[in-house]
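Researcher: I'd like a structural prediction for the single chain below. Treat it as a standalone chain; there are no partners to consider.
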Amino acid sequence: MTDAAHLPNPAALDSADPLAPVVDRFVPGDDLVAYLDGNSLGRPLRVTLEALPEFVSTQWGGRLIRGWDEGWLTLAERLGDRIGAACLGAASGQTIVADSTTVLIFKLLRAAIAARGTHAPGHAARDELVIARDEFPTDRFIVERLADDHGLTVHWLDVPHDGGVTPELIAEVVSERTIAALLGGVAYRSAWWADMAAVTGIVQAHGALVIWDCSHAVGSVPLELDAWGVDMAVGCSYKYLNGGPGAPAWAYVAARHQAQLRNPIPGWLGAAEPFSMTAGFEPAPGIRRLVSGTPPILGMQPIAHMMAEIEAAGMPAIRAKSVALTEYAIALVDALIPDAVLASPREASRRGGHITVDHPNARRAVERLWGEGVIPDFRHPSGVRIGLSPLSTSFAEVERGIRALAAALAD
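Model: Treating it as a single chain, here is the predicted structure.
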């Protein structure tokens, strides 16, 4: 515990931060005192304010349909490769930008059922899907719907309120009947960062597949999907990748699985020869077979701007600042809100880029704070989630925000 008299000086922390200059490259927002929700919706970069109108004018307005032949058709793969290289530890040809997180989770899980399920050729009968009971609602809803559609059983994994999936817990629920496990790399509520390599190995030892939802992990913790032997992963791009509301998501499929991947929503741009207009669907080689409809060209522009910042800073430096920000936030909570309960790991190696604190006054406090320009996130039933996006958040902002939170909870 840190008492209030011995808290670090935020100005000194910002002065020593090598990434401090990057904070000013983001749009500050109207009347904001502290933005503590970057893990839910990232701030836009200033360059995006200028680049989007320019793109509309010169690329869309100027080149019109010629733009497809001048780079648009391959943008989803090229941007996917950048995300893979900078954030995922993924070699080229395994990551693509397309659809929403929800649609991509459906596609990957449905493809896993086709590859490993009861009726999959060459495989023993499997009829179970594994997911945590406290997983993000979208993930749970898709698992339940697909289980219902295909006559499968959902094997629910119970995790600690301040934790997440562990090798020990997954070993208790995975079996020879498991088709796939859909798991959060960094838990959306607690920020528990799973031992993804160990968990993946345990699931695969039973012949099942792992799909990691990395929405709260990408851009906040260093991932090594290739080295960890991950089968598939998916994540949104409007949190730490700052792609904006409704930005397209990304999906990773290990090269060894791509030839067997059966896209459940076949579309013309996922075909081998999309412009031949053939009668039957022949999937494109590689990761492009996961594409269905027209790529969201406008929606990919802000992600590309943010990737330039991530590539320049590097994930090791981003992770170091993320740890420092969350450590500072925990120290402030300990000192200023002693009656709050930390619902996130104290061990930095198991913690992602946000923290959650539980307090009975959480809902009313967050409602009040939003009106005062302090923006944390409320999580039912009593959690305040404090998201600290490393490249856009200063230590001074964290200090202002948590002091305001302490006052609001006390009232």
